[in-house]
Amino acid sequence: MSTNGEAHLGDKSYDGKVIIYIIQADQTNYINYIKPLILMEELGTPYEISVIDTKSQWYYAVHPERYVPALKDWCPDAKKEVTVFESTACLQYLAE
């Protein structure tokens, strides 16, 4: 099975691929981040997976409540990096 993504630990600088921030899954956590991953695979969107500790101070700038999933991407219209969080908002962003 091929994939459009690569995985990294911790914060990742933007290099042209959508970055999705997730946590390591276990039997007790909520894996809502799977929805944007599935959509990116179906759309053929290149992405990077950043497995993070949501308690990291830098992540507060990405998501004020420090939940996952969150995406980081480049907005050509605004000419700046954008972040999107909450799985439904991530799906809508990716679909547009």
UniProtKB/TrEMBL annotation:
MF GO annotations: glutathione transferase activity
Catalytic activity line of the entry: RX + glutathione = an S-substituted glutathione + a halide anion + H(+)
Annotated EC: 2.5.1.18
Class of the enzyme per the UniProt entry, highest EC level: transferase
Matching Gene3D superfamilies: Glutaredoxin (3.40.30.10)
Ranges for domain GST N-terminal: 20-96
Pfam families (alphabetical): GST_N_2
Keyword annotations: Transferase
PANTHER family: GLUTATHIONE S-TRANSFERASE-RELATED (PTHR44051), GLUTATHIONE TRANSFERASE 1 (EUROFUNG) (PTHR44051:SF20)
Family in the record: Belongs to the GST superfamily.
Protein name as it appears in the record: glutathione transferase
Lineage: Eukaryota, Fungi, Dikarya, Ascomycota, Pezizomycotina
